[in-house]
Amino acid sequence: MKIASFNVNSIRARLPIVIDWLTKESPDVLCVQELKCQDQDFPQDAFQEINYNVAYKGEKSYNGVALFSKLPIKDVRIGFDKKETYGPRLITATIYDIPIINTYVPQGFDPDSEKFIEKLEWLKRLHAFLKKNYDPGKPLLWVGDFNVAPEPIDVYDPEKLSGHAGYHPDEHAALRHLMDWGFVDVFRKHQPGPGLYTFWDYRIRNSVKRNLGWRIDHIWATKSLAKKSVDSWIDLGPRLQKKPSDHTPVVAKFEL
DNA sequence: ATGGTCGGCAACCGA
User: Average pLDDT, stretch A25-50?
Assistant: First the structure.
C-alpha cells in the first residue's frame, strides 16, 4: 500500500500536476490539503476518469482537505465534531481497512498572535480526538500538512528559525504529546539524514535550488502499522514543474 | 535585466 500527502495550494490551479502525478506514481491513497475551492467547484470528474475515488470538504478561498483512493473510501468524517468552528482542516475515513486521518494544521502566523494560540488549541483538540476515537494499539495513519518541522534536521537553519511559527518549542511540545500517544514518524524511520524537505517558501528566491526548506508534511503511523512500512521518500517531481505548489509530496510504502 | 511569491478573487488575506 502506497500512500502520499500533498499540500497542493489550490486543487484547481494544480489539477494537471495532481492528475499527472497520480497517473505516473499510482499511489493507493493520496491525502491533499489546501483545496481553496468550494465543494460545487471541485473538479471531481477529472479524478473519476483516472479511476480514483474521492472524498473532500472545501470552502471559498481557504483550507479544504481531500482523500483520493483506488479502493472505496468508507466512513468519511469531516472535522472534530458536528460543531466545527475552524475551516475544513480534518477529514477521516477508512481505506484498505486502515483508519486514516488527513489534516491541514493551522499555520499559526506568528507566535505572538492569536492565530498561534489557535494552532496550539487545534493540536490539543486533535489529541483529545485521538483519545476519544482511536486505539494507539491498532493500525492508524495520521497524514498531512502538520505545519510543524519536528527536529533541527527538518529546517534549513534551526538556529535562525527557532521560535518561528512552524519551528517553535510550544509546537514541538504539542507534537511530542501526539507522538507519545502512539505514533512513529514513518518518513524519518526510513530517511535518517538531514536536508530533506517538503516545503520551500515562494518568498525566498530560488529556495528550492538553494534547498532552504522545511519538512512540515508528514506520514505518521501507530507502532503496529509502522512496523509494516518498507520505504518512505519525498518526491521532488511536482515541485520542479512549471507552476508548482510550495509543497511537494511525501510518500510511504507499507507491506500489509 | 527598471523585476521582486503565490492563489483566490476582486481589496487584501493567508501562507
Answer: 98
* Mean pLDDT (chain A, rounded): 97
Q: Examine the pLDDT at A71 and tell me if it is beyond 80.
A: yes
Lookup: cell for A27: 499511489
What are the start-end ranges of the H helices in chain A?
15-25, 44-49, 114-133, 158-161, 169-182, 186-190, 223-226
- Residue A236, domain extent: 2-254
* Helices A114-133 + A169-182 axis angle, to 10: 0
| Dist CA A48 CA A54 (whole Å) | 8
Interatomic separation, CA of residue A40 and C1' of nucleotide B15, rounded (Å): 24
Does the model's pTM come out above 0.85?
yes
Active-site residues of A, by number, are 104, 145
Q: How many domains does chain A have?
A: 1
Instruction: Identify nearest nucleotide to residue A108 by CA to C1′ distance.
Output: B15
Q: State residue A253's pLDDT score.
A: 98
Q: Distance between CA atoms of A207 and A205, rounded to whole angstroms? A: 5
CA–CA separation, A54 and A15 (whole Å): 14
Query: Which protein residues have any CB–strand B distance under 7 A?
Result: A 9-10, 12-13, 36-38, 60-63, 106-107, 109, 115, 147, 202-203, 205, 243
Closest-lying nucleotide for A199 based on CA to C1': B15
pLDDT in tens, A161-215: 999 999 999 999 999 999 999 999 999 999 999 999 999 999 999 999 999 999 9
pLDDT band of residue A86 (cuts 50, 70, 90) is confident
Q: What angle do CA A210, A213, A216 make, to 5 degrees?
A: 165
State the CATH number of the domain containing residue A209. Answer: 3.60.10.10
The pLDDT of residue A84 is above 80: no
